[in-house]
Fold:
Amino acid sequence: MYLSISSRLMYALCTVTLLAGTVSAVHAADATPSAHVTILATGGTIAGSGATSTTTVGYTAATVGVDRLIAAVPELAKVAQVKGEQVFQIASENMTNEHWLKLAKRVNALLAQPDVDGIVITHGTDTLEETAYFLDLTVKSKKPVVLVGAMRPGTALSADGPINLYNAVLLAASQEAVGKGVLVAMNDQIHAARDVTKTNTSTPDSFKTPELGMLGYIQGNKPYFYHVSNRKHTADTEFDISKLDALPQVDIVYGYANVGPVALNALVGAGAKGIIHAGVGDGSLASKVAPALTAARKQGVLIVRSARVGQGIVARNGEANDDALDFVVSDTLNPQKARILLMLALTKTSDSKEIQRMFYTY
Ligand code: DGL
Structure:
């Protein structure tokens, strides 16, 4: 087939364009990603190891260092320029206020650096939701902060840690995650720190936001957001921990049939500045406990009525006359998260009306 000169030129131009496109695509696939993400490792099952590949309970948490976690997922290099820091190496049931203050200060220092675009925190799942909420209230930046863990150790068949870590770094490197508050990336899902909770002792789908709903998914190397949290967080927080070395002692008492005031009185006697009452139902107070709570309030201990139920609003003046008793209600925060907000609130004020405002703000 004979082509005119102009057709030959057009054919050649198309061929060159196609080749250029292919070359650039190859280069694009190998291009160094622009986002800089720092991974702060704290321990947990994601850094755990078991005796056999089928050991999914009874393994040892917090045995693998951050460099090995990163090396185990070479795909991270496709989504971000990653650096690792080993902040702690603990099972997260041992997390303390002091750990939280150190971690939050390190996060704020890193995010203030122009060469850090996002942070991933690898963490044990037992208290992951608490650390996430503490950071949601204390991180002073809109840059992404993503917490991630694993329900199975890296030595187990179908370990979930590597893919969870990959998704977390991808999310922390994304523009979509900017300004969304502290996020939890588990099981291909994106959750808000305020409302996510661990719902199962051992299954990979343990992290859920039962009624208020998760924010989105990570699928096919991309985050998809369908909701945003409309409570204040991160850059909009009024709490500043930069000069704090300790947090006020706040404890939780659990409600149940036949409960008495012994535990409550012991905690108040030990110097608790605040008590979270994890009541049955809508935060109900047993008649054997109510007088001890009232007495504690009169001593200046701040009382928050929360609920062991886990979902729903604890109604102010519902199961107790909060106005008359000068109690605060936790809104929808579960007891462990209500404790975190009350601790931070007490660093600013002991005024119960101001603290109630904070529970309706964050
Ligand atoms: N010891 C628990 C913790 O570090 C293990 C659970 C986990 O990390 O998944 O939270």
Residues 44-45, 61, 91-93, 124-126, 149-151 surround D-glutamic acid (CB under 6 Å). Residues 295 and 301 are 9 Å apart (CA to CA). Residues 5-30 form the longest helix (26 residues).
